[in-house]
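Deliverable D5.2: sample structural annotation.
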Amino acid sequence: MERLDGSRFLRKKEGQRIFYLLLFCLLMSIVLTINFKTPLIGEDYALSLPYSLSNKSLIEKIPSINSKISKQFLTWNSRIGEQLAIIFLAIDKTIFNFVNTGFFLVFCWLIIIYSTGTLINEYLIKKLLLAVSIVFLTFPEIGQVFFWLTGSTNYLWGIVLILLFLLPYRMFLAGYDLLHSKNILIKTMYLLLGLLAGMTNENTVPAMIFILICSIVWFHFKKKRIPRWYWSGVISFIAGFLVLFLSPSTLIRYSYYKNSRDIPDPSISMLVANIKKIVQVFFESNWPLILICIILFISFYLVFLLSESRKKINHRNIIPIIIFSAGSLISLAPLVFAPYIEERSFLITWFFFAVIIFWFIIELERYYKKIETIAYLAAVITIVLLINIVNIYDRFEQEVNIRHYYILANSQIGVKNLSVDAYQTHDSKYLTTRDNYLENSLHDEVYYGIKSIEIQKKN
């Protein structure tokens, strides 16, 4: 009888694993579908090669790609994400769709790793379902960082590169040396990763450099041996950031925004006003995440106090989470000097909010097993939400195609001045059309080889 019950239990567990796997495959296939339905948006036109080159082979496009990358790097933006966007906009977008879905999957996997502190996780599929659900149900901005091509290469890919680079540091702070006794090739590739990660972002990178330097000072104070890769990694990270920060394009871009937006020279009053603005924007966009974390903290604290058998908390995980979460908040500081503030600049902060939420849920599950049901319910809600997002992108894709073929038809008969309808799709956290960007620039005109494209505003 016991053997029969054990066999039934194993079959039930296996059935659950298969169910979670099917649910996960459905969810990721919908994410991939949204990528396929995402058309060119805003800055994509600025970073694309002219449409007249679209039928050329990749070999024929290489000189134009190199020229565009050089111009972008030296005269406007040196972020590695900008250069990646140029490359992927010049080739079949199918490749980007799969790569971008892969980066999103790694992003969610990193939420699990940073939360649990282990590279190999039991019930990984179930945990990935939970991580994906946390992202789609709680993040203030989705479309600009996960689906839009230029937004994805700059923010999703950039943050993933930073987090992959920081992963050995996160594990070392928890007492594990991932790069111990690794061969020279792996360590060389890691230094290259540090260089590229340093070139991704102007506000996140310096904040994480500060955290790493503070950790070195702390280890030195505690007389703890610091491995060689720890030092060399920080140096490569700093080197990448210096390439970005000292590039002539950084000064050019800052001067452009300073003049075009009449930004005054830095002063105490201006810095105070910017700090207030950043705090306001941060809390306006992140209050749901903050509220969820507070609710989970109170719930966990009460469960922990009231439980008859208090389970031991792994403090080696909590310390790195606190340290890097603090670093994500410090990344808001450089925005004080930025000419404008965009919500997508908070992506690293959202990531660590997700890490904290994930940690609380996993810890609560140790006391209250029905939390697993909540995770399953969240996955189902996420799938329903994603289906709705597919419909939003499907309608927008049709609008973009109508405008695209209208412009092509008129350009072929020699019309140089066009008027097009503004997109009827409304901006939301799931999709930002960036139509206002095209309205105030000539990038779509250059892309199509048209003298002017006037976008008629919505009534």
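Annotation notes: The chain has a mean pLDDT of 88. The first strand starts at residue 417 and ends at 421.
The annotation will be released with the project's public dataset once the embargo ends.
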